[in-house]
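Quick one: structure tokens for this chain, please?
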Amino acid sequence: MKSNRIRVAATTASFLLSMGGIAVADQTTATTQIGTATVAAGSEVAKMVIDGDAKKGKRVFNKCKACHKLEAGKNGVGPSLAGLFGRPAAEVEGFRYSDAMINSGIVWTPETLTQYLHKPKDFVPGTKMTFAGLKKDKDINDLLAYLAEELQD
């Protein structure tokens, strides 16, 4: 099955710059490669393109949904995933994070999510997340494509 290319509004061009993107004077045509995503800065919004199969990602999400909800304001054992892309870690209102996550300085991009989802406890030692991680890059890419599709505004 052919991969879907999902476009997600992430944040402003200043986010791209903060992630080490390449900027031009007017910040309208900057691009950079970040992990599994290509981020292209526009004058108002940076777009992320995630290669993955959202249908397969929905099946991968079955491993996540016992703890995480997609709806804003609905925390479970883990925080809501609404607004995930481009959000700093430990920013979901009403969820009690570990000190490790609060102090991590992470901004959730496809790259950081890929690293985290491989081995959460290695990426953020001291995290409360008990999930061991996803072994296959394909599963992570499919999951990210699913989340990108489901979390679009």
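The beta strands are 4-11, 31-34, 37-41, 46-52.
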